[in-house]
Amino acid sequence: MFYDCIVVGAGPAGSTAAKILSQCGYKVLIIDSKAFPRVKLCGGCVSAKIIDYIPNIGDLSEKIAFKAILSYKKSACLSIESTEPFAYFVDRKVFDNYLLESAVKSGCKFENEKLIALSYDDTMIEVYTSKNHYKSKYLIGADGANSTVRKILHIKPKFTIKTLQGKSNTLIDYINVDIGFGKINYYWSFPQNQACGIASPKKNINKLFYKYYKTDDVFDVKGYFIPIAFSKNNLGKSNILLVGDAACLADPFSLEGIYNAIYSAHLAAASILSFPKNPYEAYVCLASKILEGNKYSYYISQIVAKFPYFVFSKLSKGNESVLADYLKGAKSSKDLFWLLLKNLYKKTIK
Ligand SMILES: Cc1cc2nc3c(=O)[nH]c(=O)nc-3n(C[C@H](O)[C@H](O)[C@H](O)COP(=O)(O)OP(=O)(O)OC[C@H]3O[C@@H](n4cnc5c(N)ncnc54)[C@H](O)[C@@H]3O)c2cc1C
Fold first, then answer.
1. How do residues 246-293 score in pLDDT, each as one tens digit?
2. Which of 44, 68, 80, 123 is the most exposed place for a label (fewest CB within 10 A)?
3. Which SUPFAM superfamilies does the annotation name (predicted)?
4. What total of structural domains would you count in the chain?
């Protein structure tokens, strides 16, 4: 069967791209190896800037955070509050199913099939799934962190961040991020679903997790990984575009991946619609803002890992509003990076 575009993966990235292309009259097939609604290991925290793409995010959220606490080794704390939301918390099972249903309502076809293999040239893509064989003009790889499409294209992440997430008996009604233990991204505790976790490029995060959380306080602990890259080579090839985690586009410091998944899906769909002869080149141009932002986030993660106390103390003193804007997404990682660098420079020349 022939489609204008086949989307592999029905997470936030895939469903968003499928919806836009179907709305514009493309014949679209979206496949996912899992039956929906499906569970996805995730904190479900989406920064407030998502409202640009999902105006009804408030209705889809289980919780909305107006308060965040940045802490250092659990003790020193900086509390930031706002009358506007910092972030929305979604249940991924419900949220992803809503996005897929919206895509199907727009006219695309959904099949519960697993991508097995691809063959492609500049004019045609052949897609082999667990059940069928399809052909299409374009393909969007939205199949997440362990993307089969990315592997078939021989594209690799720059590195991976390991994560462990569990549930805590200690309930909170704010976001808590602790950067005090060095060489990690951070520990997090969220108001939704009792979620707590750790993210780090280090291998043995089990030990680090239980160094911070009390064994008798946490349960249901599971691990996964987040691939990171900020190169145009990770965005695909020719008529095959990678989006979201398949393109390794989660923010390397905050590890927020849902926003860039949805944002990159908009850019990939726009590239196919506006530049049908060479969507990859167009997508590389459009996505350069994401790649640049992620580079700065990577630099921040390096500074945090090396100088956690310095970062904590600098952000604590008079920079609450910058931090609040960063959490909401109103200030970029580039803004935060330069703020930290300016302070680092001042400290060095003193
Ligand atoms: C522990 C943890 C906590 C996180 N917390 C947050 C958070 O609080 N906020 C945030 O923004 N981000 C968070 N993230 C990152 C976030 O989950 C991802 O960035 C986001 O899900 C990416 O969306 P996506 O659509 O690209 O991929 P996914 O949501 O992973 O969707 C990919 C889909 O592809 C399907 N698939 C995979 N392989 C195939 C195949 N071969 N054939 C067909 N289908 C296939 C999968 O079944 C899946 O449904 C977290 C990640 C982890 C691991």
1. 999 999 999 999 999 999 999 999 999 999 999 999 999 999 999 999
2. 123
3. FAD/NAD(P)-binding domain
4. 2
